[in-house]
Amino acid sequence: MFCSFLCSECQVLKAIHLRNCIMRQPFGQLKVTVVQGKRLVIRDFKSSDPYVVLKLGNQMAKTKVINSCLNPVWNEEHSLSLTEPVGVLSLEVFDKDRFKADDKMGKAYLNLQPIISAARLRHLVHVSSGETPLRKIIPDSENCLARESSIICINGEVVQNVWLRLCEVESGEIELKVKIVDAPSR
Ligand SMILES: [Ca+2]
């Protein structure tokens, strides 16, 4: 990739290459609990068979399918690696079908910057025991929040409780609990 004498052009390329390698190193785990869904849309005759697909960068996780239910409870935790630059957690709900392609039931996204910043703040102020509120995020046109979301530190762990409003669909909300493990100390 680089010439043996490392000319100035190669030195620059090598520096960029090294920086990109460092930036892509995982620096923690994101634990996402898909708690439940409310008022999901009907995609079969009277109900739907919903499941949730989570995506972060090129990582993907799926919940199980809950048959014939518009207010499903999953309570499933999935782990995703956090790498720099931290992207957006996206979520899509589908109706499982046996004899045709699964139907879309809406999508939403969650900006992870607030919880990452809160995790770094936690390291700066050495919050470690008990329950400490760190930040509140209010719903606006720039996010998918259905209601106010709080980021708290519980016994050293940074957790965000969030209700996301599904878009590109008539109705539906999804509750997530997002937690950072091995948070960055930078
Ligand atoms: Ca179905």
From TrEMBL:
Gene Ontology process terms (BP): abscisic acid-activated signaling pathway
Keyword Calcium appears in the UniProt entry: yes
Highest taxon, organism lineage: Eukaryota
Pfam families: C2
Keywords from the UniProt entry: Abscisic acid signaling pathway, Calcium, Cell membrane, GTPase activation, Lipid-binding, Membrane, Metal-binding, Nucleus
Domain C2: from-to ranges: 10-126
Claim: Translocase is one of the keywords in the record: no
CDD domains: C2_ArfGAP
Family, per entry: Belongs to the plant CAR protein family.
Name the record gives this protein: C2 domain-containing protein
